Amino acid sequence: MDPAKLLALDARHVWHPYAPMPGRVEPLLVTDASGVRLRLADGRELVDGMSSWWAAIHGYRHPVLDAALAEQAGRMSHVMFGGLTHEPAIRLATKLVELTPPGLEHVFLCDSGSVSVEVAVKMCLQYWQSLGRKGKRRLLTWRGGYHGDTFHPMSVCDPDDGMHSLWRGVLPEQVFVPEPPGGFGAPVDGSYVDMLAREIEEHADELAAVIVEPVVQGAGGMRFHNPGYLRALRELTRAHDVLLIFDEIATGFGRTGALFAAGHAGVTPDVLCLGKALTGGYLTMAAALCTPEVAGGISRGELPVLAHGPTFMGNPLASAVANASIDLLLDHDWQGAVRRIETGLREGLSGAVDLPGVADVRVLGAIGVVQLDHDVDMAAATKVATERGVWLRPFRDLIYAMPPYVCTDAEVRTIAAAMTAAAAGA
Ligand code: PMP
């Protein structure tokens, strides 16, 4: 169909994320993608600095992932998971247990990151319910977080986010504490840990769990923190009978330089959420992993099952691609690739620090962030970046990138140059 006609139909009928309906901002029409490049209907090519929202770590149309998908499609594209099981899901669960921090033994496969957070919360609430501690139903989290757009995840997103005020009275009321101070390399602030201790102790009788994004708070503000705070949380939650959920939907599979961000701290949470890069960005799939203690507690309750069963749970296509994506990651020097991107972003963004209006530049693993002292003009910044051949999606005061791990050094330089230019013009 003619691109102009497609875009007209898009504006009339297709409701895009965080967008009004009918559409006001015309999206770019992508016709295909391969490697790290998106091809647009008007013939332009853009390097994807966003990895399709942290997901496409191997880039697009990777032959190994394409083959895994085709092979599985030739056998079985979907089958209900209730009462039936299959090898791709069994292999995937086993692999995830082997790779994630020790102690996580059970895997609940979900269809999106937000759903895996819902499942993680359900696990924790049900655990305490089963143990007869029915008052433990709230969550504690730090401000500046993001855990997804369905209701329980929204209730632990940053409370200053507009969605929160919109849904006041509908969202469960959670306990918020300030986000950890400093950056990844900043020393642990003892007074902050004391505050965490006071809050967890004060609310212990009503807290089912603490939920945080370890090391990198993503869509809530792209902040980094010292992994020492995760160790403190682990000790405090244990001491006060509170479970600990790590949301590694964005950070999982190498993004921060460790396979899982919890690895920076050497900490095992009670429940771990994964998603996004799980299938290399090919298909929607997420997972909530938990310890035998959590699963065992639920099994001893008056309802001894986890009452959750999405239609597309354990989808064989997604499971097969996830297996191939994880093998592909581990078969390559992914640490070297992430380090190379980290160095490239650091060097490429060094000039941005001195630009007027730039408040901070920070890089960790394959994540680069330029923070302004004002809100970005999103349309202007996107235009500058696309003119330089790069796809970015700035938000609030942030221009950021998390490139696919297969980006060449030159492509990383192009991304950093586009971020700098966007910061200069925004
Ligand atoms: N948690 C985190 C940390 C995320 O970054 C996201 C997605 N940006 C989610 C949860 C929600 O995942 P999904 O969009 O797949 O529902």
UniProtKB/TrEMBL annotation:
It is found in: Cytoplasm. Pfam families: Aminotran_3 (PF00202). Its EC number is 2.6.1.62. PROSITE patterns: AA_TRANSFER_CLASS_3 (PS00600). The record marks Y18 as: Participates in the substrate recognition with KAPA and in a stacking interaction with the adenine ring of SAM. Pyridoxal 5'-phosphate binds at G113, S114, D247, P310, T311. One of its GO terms (cellular component) is cytoplasm. The keyword Magnesium does not apply. It comes from the Bacteria. Substrate binds at W53, Y146, K276, G309, R393. It is an enzyme of class 2 (transferase). The modification N6-(pyridoxal phosphate)lysine is found at K276. Pathway: Cofactor biosynthesis; biotin biosynthesis; 7,8-diaminononanoate from 8-amino-7-oxononanoate (SAM route): step 1/1. The keyword Cytoplasm applies. HAMAP family: BioA. Catalyzes the transfer of the alpha-amino group from S-adenosyl-L-methionine (SAM) to 7-keto-8-aminopelargonic acid (KAPA) to form 7,8-diaminopelargonic acid (DAPA). It is the only aminotransferase known to utilize SAM as an amino donor. This is Adenosylmethionine-8-amino-7-oxononanoate aminotransferase. It comes from Amycolatopsis alkalitolerans. The lineage of its organism: Bacteria, Bacillati, Actinomycetota, Actinomycetes, Pseudonocardiales. The gene is bioA.
